[in-house]
Each structure stands twice: as C-alpha cells, then as structure tokens.
TrEMBL record:
SMART domains, sorted: HTH_ASNC
Protein's organism: Bradyrhizobium manausense
Superkingdom per UniProt: Bacteria
Designated name of the protein: AsnC family transcriptional regulator
GO cellular component entries: cytosol
InterPro entries attached to this UniProt entry: ArsR-like_HTH, AsnC-type_HTH_dom, Dimeric_a/b-barrel, Tscrpt_reg_AsnC-like, Tscrpt_reg_AsnC/Lrp_C, WH-like_DNA-bd_sf, WH_DNA-bd_sf
Domain HTH asnC-type: 3-64
Listed GO biological process terms: regulation of DNA-templated transcription; response to amino acid
Keywords linked to the UniProt accession: DNA-binding, Transcription, Transcription regulation
A Pfam family recorded for this sequence: HTH_24
Molecular function GO terms recorded: sequence-specific DNA binding
Signal sequence, start to end: none
Length: 156
C-alpha cells in the first residue's frame, strides 16, 4: 500500500508507543488532530495497523526458556497442515509459528518456565501434535536483538 511521509511517521510513532493519544501523535508528526485521526483510521481499515499491544518481559512472567523448534510433518496435504496449524494455535506456550521452506516445514517459537518444564512440554505435547515426523530444538542463550518494530519503507 502506498503511503506518504506522514503515514510513515504515524506508523513509526505508534510502533514506538501505541498509547499515544491522537493529540500527542499529531504533535509528533506536525499535523492537526483531525487529519491525524483520519490517517490512523485509514491505516487500520487498510490492515496496515492490525492492533495495539503492550510489550511484556517474558522473564518477569516466569518464562526462563526461549526455544525454536524446527518441525517436519509426515504428510504435506492441506488437511495435515491445517490440523497441525490448528493444534499449534491452541497452545499458549507456542508464541509464534511460521510455515517455512527448507529442511523443515514449520518453525515454532516456544517458551518454558525452565528446562525441565520445556522438556515435559516438548515430549508430552509437541511430539504428539498431528503429523509430526521430526523435530529439532534450538535454545536461545542470549537475546542479542529482541523483536523490534518493523522497518517502515520510505515513501515514494
């Protein structure tokens, strides 16, 4: 979707602080409140802004382990992939899932309270998801660059 410099400024500001009021946002982007509000509404309606959320510290919530699991499934039919995706979506410990190309079919981002809790979850829950042929876990040792705001493309 094409957007101009003011749209880009709105997106950057809201990714930095989604709690900004329209008045605060309009001050930041040097535009009056009504046009700012209309632009935000348009960006929401066009699906560029998909929601607003607070950033939480996983460790403060008790999630000491962060792991990525590469998963290969037995059957590559649409029904098998959908069954796997639906099962993954129901598990809150799986915080993200991507269908990927390469040696695996899916990449899961998973949290656990500690290594024992992660091992229990992996062996009793993940291994039993529909259609799993193989899985390989990679544990994070250090968060070098945490998830960051999306880069805003330069307006044309």
């Amino acid at each position: 979707m094409p957007f101009d410099a003011q749209d880009a400024a709105i997106l950057a500001a809201l990714q930095g602080d989604a709690r900004l009021t329209v008045a605060q946002l309009s001050d930041r982007i040097h535009l009056s409140t009504s046009p700012t509000w209309r632009r935000v509404k348009r960006l929401e309606e066009e699906g560029v802004i998909t929601g607003y959320q607070a950033s939480l510290d996983r460790r403060a919530l008790g999630w000491g382990v962060l792991a990525f699991i590469s998963v290969s499934i037995e059957d590559h039919s649409d029904a098998q992939a959908r069954a796997f995706e639906n099962a993954v979506a129901a598990l809150p410990e799986i915080v993200a899932c991507w269908s990927i190309a390469g040696s695996a079919d899916f990449l899961l981002q998973v949290v656990g309270r500690d290594l024992d809790a992660y091992a229990e979850f992996a062996m009793t829950t993940i291994r039993r998801l529909p259609g799993i042929k193989a899985m390989q876990t990679t544990f994070t040792l250090k968060e070098v660059k945490p998830p960051a705001p999306w880069p805003i493309p330069r307006p044309d």
